[in-house]
Amino acid sequence: MEDPPADSGGGGGGGGGSAAAEGPAVQVANICWPTGALPLRLLEWKVKPGSLVNVDSVLALCAPIPQEKGTEAARLPERKVKSNRAGVVKELCCQLGQVIPPGGVIVRIEECSHPIVMKGLCAECGQDLTQLQSTNGNQQTPISTATVSMVHSVPELMVSSEQAEQLGREDQQRLHRNKKLVLMVDLDQTLIHTTEQHCQRMSNKGIFHFQLGRGEPMLHTRLRPHCKEFLEKIAKLYELHVFTFGSRLYAHTIAGKEPLFYIL
Description:
This protein is an alpha+beta fold.
């Protein structure tokens, strides 16, 4: 018979008012034994304070205590107490050998704030946040603190504002060590020229022909004069970043064309 999951009681929030504006405050939840289950005797802990747990992680091994006389001889199988949420164990609320009554608090867990999310999955605890959103419905409290998109080529990767600030500080320190500034260079009409009109009388040398999708117009792109020499020299002095007002697909298609991806 499958063990019933532990219940979650109310817990105190550890964050301040300012954190609520950016994402959920730190929540500490009580993991309780279900009220309708038999009392348990705690035999062995499977976690300790500071342990990272996921949904269905085993917290403790317990022995059910039969309530009817005459059933003591027929020993009930041991039960695994499992967590119903992800986070970090803050406190073990029972001693070995102690009887845990129905509704009794077993552990306290600081819930995962899901600070790094990739395609709906938390990188810290592995929780599928899309399932939480469908379960919680139109809740007002944010599920994750990950609200900042950090990588242009991977828009599904989101991090919390704290993580973004830390990454920003690391970038700044790296630039100081390398003694470089960042140079932002526009793509169109600065490095390249792209048009839908292709002159058949012109040489095809150095022109890249491509479509962004089926049914899309054919595009023709050429490096502007002395672009390669400019980038090779300026890259020694600056950390280069390229931006465009065009679409993301257009930018990555251009950057992937030889020999452009060796330069950009």
